[in-house]
Amino acid sequence: MRSSPNELAEGVRALLKASVAPEISSPQARIDLRKALAVLRAGSWNEMPFMLLSENRLLLGLLAEIEPASADLGAPFAAARDLAREALTPRSTDSYPAADALNQACRSALGAFVDAIDRDASPAFRRDWRNRIIATLLASPFNAARD
User: Fold this and answer.
1) For residue 127, what pLDDT is reported?
2) Measured distance CA(132)–CA(124) in Å, rounded
3) What is the distance, to the nearest Å, from the Cα of residue 37 to the centroid of all Cα atoms in its chain?
């Protein structure tokens, strides 16, 4: 049986604590090691890829709504719509780097859309879409993992 990501992270933590920590004499290096150990302990390493895929589905769903909703808003929203179309273009996400690249594309499109609504949208449109974006980001499994 193959070790899970959580088991691998725990093995690295144990190795660092047992072999590396006793050899460190620098106070700053000890602090840095404690931070690294905390990161290894805090991660949901088994779930991370699935959390990313789930967040991508949420963001893609929101972008699919934004693109047509902003169609009548004209030129100020053109760049945001282009980024949304690019993110919505079907692509393979069968590796973590590919899924992460999709996530970054979605977030770039959302950022461009927020910039455009802050500059050029009516207060009601701005409020509605900001609330929808915030709700979507709060629904991310990465936020749930922090609770």
Assistant:
1) 92
2) 12
3) 22
Percent of the chain with pLDDT over 90: 48
Split at pLDDT 50, 70, 90, the class of 56 is very high
Quick check: 97 and 49 in contact, CB under 8 A?
A: no
Between 3 and 53, where is the model more confident? 53
Residues near 4 by beta carbon (within 8 Å), at least 6 away in sequence: 45, 46
Q: DSSP of 69-138, one letter per residue? A: HTGGG-GGGHHHHHHHHHHHS-----SHHHHHHHHHHHHHHHHHHHHHHHHHS-HHHHHHHHHHHHHHHH
Burial class (CB in 10 A: 0-12, 13-18, 19+), 97: exposed
Q: Are 60 and 108 in contact (CB under 8 A)?
A: no
pLDDT, residue 146, reads 55
Q: What are the phi and psi torsion angles at 140 (to 5°)? A: -55, 140
Does residue 28 carry a pLDDT above 90? yes
The Cβ of residue 137 has, within 10 Å, a number of other Cβ atoms equal to 16
What is the C-alpha separation between 77 and 73, in angstroms, rounded? 6
